[in-house]
Amino acid sequence: MRWALILFLVAAVFVIPDAAPCSAHAKPSADISRGPDLLDEPDTPDAGSEAEQVSSAISDISATDISDMAAAGGASDVGIAVLDLESGQVVSEQGDKPFYSASLSKLILAVDALQQQLSADDQDLVHRALSVSDDNAMDVLWTRFDGMGAIGRVAAEAGLTGTHAPQDPSQWGEVVVTADDMVRLYHYILGSPVRDAVVADLSSAQATAADGFDQAFGLLGVTGAYAKQGWMYYLPSEVYLHSAGVLDNRYAVAVLTTNPSGDWATARQSINAVTQAVLGKLTVQG
Length: 286
Description:
Elements: E1 7-8, E2 12-13, E3 15-17, H1 50-55, H2 63-71, E4 77-84, E5 90-93, E6 99-100, H3 104-113, H4 120-131, H5 135-144, H6 147-158, E7 176-177, H7 179-189, H8 195-203, E8 225-234, E9 238-247, E10 251-259, H9 264-285
Antiparallel strand pairs: 1-2, 3-8, 4-5, 4-10, 6-7, 8-9, 9-10
Helix pairs in contact: 2-9, 3-6, 4-5, 4-8
């Protein structure tokens, strides 16, 4: 994984992400703005209608269920959101909690870039950023397509209330996102002209990323799912692993985690445990 440059402030702190192009910062703090607790509630269907039957797909997932899913992560700080793409119904646990995005910002930028006239080279850069999470491709896209502005544009278009650009324009891994916003983003993508390109690129993701990192955790590799992954390390011990995608063309799922162990294997076990708890419940309900 590419090492970020060291920036000396009061103490030397640096980032080792799949997502930090330049200088470094300390881990997230309370100044990261927060979004709402839940997504907007869908319209209530008429009793006995087909819409009512559709909306029941995740309606039996209780607050206790979703809390138990998050608890499966052990020491990890976890944000979960599940959106039924057919009904608009959502369940979440700490869905409004802000996280640094790591490479989830690549998905946001790609949505903006794909709405513009792209050369074959640009299209390849987007493909590499989404499929193998290529940091070098993202560095170019971030500069070429006004990454700081792109985050705000997509947030406004998709109604992402907890997402905003990083304080340091060089640090695209520090875009702030929430689990609620990530499932909301997929809902927007799947109803937009960029749908086919995004789905194709994410569906071609392989286990080994461009930097050699094993990105087969969370949703990636699950049958019937495609996802964008993110990973990032903050000294002294914060390990970020995120997985946000779509399952069975029915559910948008986001699992965002930070683990204090400083150990990739521990963090991977944590996000996999949370994801399996979520998928197990969706299998029962779906």
